[in-house]
TrEMBL record:
UniProt family annotation: Belongs to the UPF0145 family.
Protein's name in the database: UPF0145 protein LX16_1453
Gene3D superfamilies, sorted: Hypothetical protein apc22750. Chain B (3.30.110.70)
Signal peptide start and end residues: none
Entry-linked InterPro entries: UPF0145_dom_sf (IPR035439), UPF0145_YbjQ-like (IPR002765)
Organism name: Stackebrandtia albiflava
Top-level taxonomic group: Bacteria
Length: 121
């Protein structure tokens, strides 16, 4: 498995800037639109459950679960971007991820932040 399968982030052609900081160096925030988020809940399939159980006995990375989590984060980020753009934002500041167990059936991944309109300072 290559590094591209374990990475994420925004497509450079998305037309929206996303940062984890509260400000964007070189830009000023002209308007705050408000909170935006992208959410997905993924269940684990039986094969990864069995594999995870065996790995937990012997140790090592749970590659199937890692890949599922990366895909979930990317889907949550895509949904965050869609919501921000639909509300007229060209940037999202203070972006964060939150990951929680959704019972025993799956994992909830939420990407959230503040949608803003920025312009060069």
């Amino acid at each position: 498995m290559g590094i591209e399968e374990y990475g994420g982030g925004i497509d450079p052609g998305a037309g929206i800037l996303v940062v984890t900081s509260n400000e964007v160096p070189g830009y000023r925030i002209d308007r705050v639109i408000g909170e935006v988020f992208g959410l997905t809940v993924r269940s684990r399939h039986l094969g990864s459950q069995i594999g995870a159980g065996l790995k937990s006995m012997f140790g090592g990375e749970l590659r199937g679960l890692t890949k599922t989590l990366v895909e979930s984060r990317n889907q949550a980020m895509d949904r965050l971007l869609e919501q921000a753009q639909a509300r007229g934002a060209n940037a999202v500041v203070a972006m964060r991820y939150d990951v929680t167990e959704a019972g025993e059936s799956g994992t909830e991944v939420c990407a959230y932040g503040t949608a803003v309109v920025v312009s060069p300072a």
